[in-house]
Amino acid sequence: MKSSLAPGMRLMTSFSRDSWYRGFILFLTFLFYTAYHLSRKPISIVKSELHRNCSALIPPADLNISNNATWCDWAPFDQDNYNTLFGVLDNSFLVAYAIGMFFSGIFGERLPLRYYLSIGMLLSGLFTVLFGLGYYWNIHSLWYYAFIQVMNGLVQTTGWPSVVTCVGNWFGKGKRGFIMGIWNSHTSVGNILGSLIAGVFVSSAWGMSFIVPGLIIASTGILCFFFLVEKPEDVNCSAPNHHCDQEGNEEEPVLQNPSNTDTTSYGACSISTETSEAREEQAEAISFIGALSIPGVVEFSLCLLFAKLVSYTFLYWLPLYISKVAHFEAKEAGDMSTLFDVGGIVGGIMAGLVSDYTGGRATTCGFMLLAAAPMLFLYNSIGQRSFGTTVGMLLVCGGLVNGPYALITTAVSADLGTHESLRGNSRALSTVTAIIDGTGSIGAAVGPLLAGLISPTGWNNVFYMLISADILACLFLSRLVYKEVQGWCGRCFPVRG
After folding, report:
1. How many domains does the chain have?
2. CATH number of the domain within which 312 lies
3. Which stretch of 13-17, 231-235, 286-290 has the lowest confidence by average pLDDT?
4. Measured between alpha carbons, how far is residue 474 from residues 277, 349, 370 in Å?
5. SS3 139
6. How far apart are CA 402 and CA 335, in angstroms?
7. 153, 190, 320, 475: which could form a disulfide with 34 (CB 3.0–4.6 Å)?
8. Could you please report the per-residue DSSP string of 179-243?
9. In b/e form, how buried is each residue of 427-459, taking b as 16+ CB within 10 angstroms?
10. Could you tell me if residue 383 is inside a domain?
11. Can you give the residue range of the structural domain that contains 34?
């Protein structure tokens, strides 16, 4: 009697070769960008250790204390303007990141992504480790740490345009928001892991809070070099369709030259696979001005500027805020701040799911940004009253703040980078992604800087700034929201001739 195939093997063989490759690339790029964010997070955790309330601690017997309030601080952050100095470190990274991002997309479209990502992660690991070695080398120069942050900001720009381009190459528009919403949780997962890893070492030897994440991202760079596949055609897989009909479904491709193409089923969509010669004729890298002229790029870029301002202010200042306002220790504040990122995971997935179902990327973002403003006010007003309130408010605020940010930097960027006006040329993905995220990174640089300057006047003023930024982000999408709503009304109430 012939034995039946084991259930596990039956499940595995039910997926096509294309599906296995797509799943593998999704997992691999998820891992890569988790490492990028994991290596950025330690600075926010270590801040509360570099400047502490030393008067509450007992100094070692052999220590000659000249100032009882700052003996345990790490110079030069033992000064009264320590918040400003922390702002310098944040902006050294973020300004370099914002400037570098506009060039990174151009390089990313003209260089092999596998090499570009691998070198970027190895260099990022190097500079992250060098920051941590400042502890062991007893370095107290602000310029040393600022220079490391600038270099790290520049090399980290290799990450985002590359991974979005790679995922965009492998996945068409069908369910892109949902798939990328789940995939984009790497940002929050990286923040959470970075917080937890840094928290393990922050109170004993804060240098290790940087060294361990640096080694992790360097390791993923090696993994990238050996395993990343940039495009489906590189392994003879079928390429996805990047265009939708008016109802938001993927269109079947029009085959202009049947001898050069064939079609393969991918889910419910038809996929066109062209020969490499036909693709090479189309694959021209888009110019910077050409990318800006794609409808929606400018609006979403300006929206992301303010949305990312809010998100990155929380990324860099939330642990310190919790430590100062709720009086938690550095490790506890870092652990508590991860709840904001947990909410961000749920928010990103929900934003992608809703935008796929409705076809309204801009409307989904606008609604969440509008809802985030009053929730930020409530968090600052009542968020520290009890443990349960703190947990609930952090989760809700994280979802509403990071949901639009996640949707714009993933599904929206991929949609615009494969816009129908490009006539099938998907090589604009990297440049469009870099423009959108680069503009957003300007906000990411300004937000933490403003927080450092405003926080001495009171945390209330910091939250007023964040609320204003959310409202401005929503306003920049108003034209696109109007067009989406108009389209829905036109389908629900068609004009009869």
Report:
1. 1
2. 1.20.1250.20
3. 286-290
4. 44, 20, 6
5. coil
6. 18
7. 190
8. HHHHHTTHHHHHHHHHHHHHHHHTTT-TTHHHHHHHHHHHHHHHHHHHH----GGGGTPPPPP--
9. bbbbbbbbbbbbbbbbbbbbbbbbbbebbeeeb
10. yes
11. 15-54+75-240+283-492
